[in-house]
């Protein structure tokens, strides 16, 4: 079995990737900013990065930050991986990064292009949004008696553990370039998804569809972030909610 480094290995996706790879018998190194022995801030290009990559065959790059810096982090990671002779770099991206002019999506696309030009074997998997993102969105919006939702926008949430399984499979194989997109089992209106959240949470809220403006909103409304032809996920948003509330005992 090989040595695999997972960046962001304690995060929403990364921890499931780590679990899957270890179950398959690999030596897995978990890299994150605060987790020893590989506590590295990729944005700073810490010297510990070279040590973390020493002897590593494959890197699965799941680390990301809403505060920015992903492009610099990728540059530092790729440069260090080349110095270490890493054979395979795998990256998780988002469906629609080339169609939706949303700032975070532009960053993900820029990182994709860095991987394509990395000079070694690479794989990029794009997935639709995780169930957890919608859960947190609706949780925040439902704190008000009225929940505003973007008008005429749909989503296709996917189970994070299913994405982790697919990403782990790709990481263990030969570099695949752009892998087939991975979408959740259903394309749903935001109104329908919000209603499912409220039902599961036992809350009553008025849902208001709000028309927005801008090129990013128009792209979302046109479904640029969806992959209806790649609806390969199996767990629905309702499945996710049932499990989530069974564990937490209710909304928090």
UniProtKB/TrEMBL annotation:
Domain NAD(P)-binding: 8-132
Pfam assignment, any one: NAD_binding_10
GO molecular function annotation: protein-containing complex binding
Domain of life, source organism: Bacteria
Signal peptide from the UniProt entry: none
InterPro entries for this protein: ComplexI_NDUFA9_subunit (IPR051207), NAD(P)-bd_dom (IPR016040), NAD(P)-bd_dom_sf (IPR036291)
PANTHER family, A to Z: NADH DEHYDROGENASE [UBIQUINONE] 1 ALPHA SUBCOMPLEX SUBUNIT 9, MITOCHONDRIAL, NADH-UBIQUINONE OXIDOREDUCTASE 39 KDA SUBUNIT-RELATED
Protein name in UniProt: NAD(P)H-binding protein
Species this protein is from: Actinospica acidiphila
